[in-house]
Amino acid sequence: MQTKIVEKVVEISGFQVSGLQVRTRNADEADNATGKIGPLWGQFFVKNLPETLPAKTGDGKIYGVYSNYESDAHGLFNVTAGVAVMAASAELANISIAAGRYMVFDCEGEMPAAIIEGWGKVWSYFSGETKYQRSYLTDFEEYQGPAQAAIYIGIK
């Protein structure tokens, strides 16, 4: 049974995220031996960045930001594990979330399984004819609690 996707679209003001960054592609992430995103998040939590990052905003939310796309969902892209900040960090990677329209995919359940399932819904939704087209500027995961997150996909 396929889950119906609610086409929830929001307007986002741009904001800044600082954290750790890797460059990867989805094909590499499908293999645990070549995947870089899991180890990136491991380092993020080992360094305790949510607590120690200077200039972070007051909401304390953690973000996974996808940016600098080579082409589409099959090409290389950057992933930044970070927190929203008021000012860029000199020691860490910095990425600006592009202002604009985003389609939101809600994810609930045990992480990271829930977020992986959420990305499956994203790829499924955008694999055919859809009302919205991806912009491939910035996409991001917003972690709202231990078992709740949302994936924001930039749309044209």
Question: In terms of topology, how is this protein built?
Answer:
Blueprint: E1 8-12, E2 15-24, H1 26-29, H2 37-46, H3 49-52, E3 62-67, E4 77-85, E5 93-97, E6 100-108, H4 113-126, E7 134-145, E8 148-155
Antiparallel strand pairs: 1-6, 2-4, 2-5, 3-4, 3-7, 6-8, 7-8
Order of helices and strands: EEHHHEEEEHEE
Distance between the termini: 29 Å
Can you name the CATH architecture? Alpha-Beta Barrel
Radius of gyration, whole Å: 15 Å
Query: Please, how many helices?
Result: 4
Q: Give the integer mean of the pLDDT values.
A: 90
Taken from the alpha-carbon principal axes, the silhouette is globular
Overall number of strands: 8
Q: Give the number of domains.
A: 1
What percentage of residues falls in helices of 4 or more residues? 10-25%
Stretches with pLDDT under 50, minimum 5 residues? none
So what's the CATH class? Alpha Beta
Classified in CATH, the superfamily is Regulatory factor, effector binding domain
Sheet with most strands: 8 strands, antiparallel
Q: What portion of residues belong to β-strands?
A: 35-45%
